[in-house]
Structures are given as structure tokens and as C-alpha cells.
């Protein structure tokens, strides 16, 4: 009898609610997998990055969140995600810190993955790694501590659609 009740109750839940719960669980698992407690702020921030595939500044991210997070708490959530290797932080040519989700986790100093950012749609993509021999070669100049490389331009999609170029 009790079992029957559970079945009939679950059937009334709309499909979208199930999907949302699954999506939320995946975000929580990503955070737990990176040894971060899945706090509401971290979940909300990571959710935007997983949905958008774009580089986002602190200010832009604040406008895109489902609910309001104060500046300091948002900054703290971003830094936690960067330190855990889930987000990457790059400074663009305007001197603004841009954050994006990185699929490759951890700080691997043996390889260098440059990124390309479209100045128009702000989409960011990982470019092929530079060869290991390059990293070995430049190690002769000193110990590399920051190996973030950002190339900027206009993506092919934006170039094709003839979107106005922002420089
Ligand atoms: Zn573009």
C-alpha cells in the first residue's frame, strides 16, 4: 500500500523537475570530486559556467545568477573553484579577470594549453597543447609559475554572421 503511494506521487512530478534534480546532482558530484563542499553559492556559480561555455567576468556572472550573491561571497566562490582546478582565471586585453570552466583539472606545469576567446560572443575554447619540448625548452629561463595563455580574436561563427567586431 505504502509502495503504491510512492509510485503515484512520483508520477505526478513533471519531467523537467526530474531533469533539474539530476543536473543538480551532477554539479554536486563535480564539486565533491574536487574536494569542495557543495554550498549553494558554489553550485549556483558552477551551474552558470556549465551552461554558458563562455568566459565571464565577476560583474557579468553576478547578473546571470539565479539569485543574488553579494560581491565578496561571489568572489570567494570563484576563487574556491579556481583553486580546486574547476575554473581557470585569465586576464583579457582590457585587464579584466575572466573565468571559464576547465575540463582538465589540476595544475599541470608539464603542458601549456592556450585558450582562444572571441571578442564578440565571448565564447572561450581550449586550443591544442603546446608540445612538451617547448615547456622543457623554456624551463631554461626559470621556473614557470603562471602558464595561462589567452589568444583573442573573432570566432568563425561570428565572422560568418558578420557580427560587429568589438575592439
Ligand atoms: Zn564569436
From TrEMBL:
InterPro entries: FUR (IPR002481), WH-like_DNA-bd_sf (IPR036388), WH_DNA-bd_sf (IPR036390). This is Transcriptional repressor. It comes from Dyadobacter linearis. The lineage of its organism: Bacteria, Pseudomonadati, Bacteroidota, Cytophagia, Cytophagales.
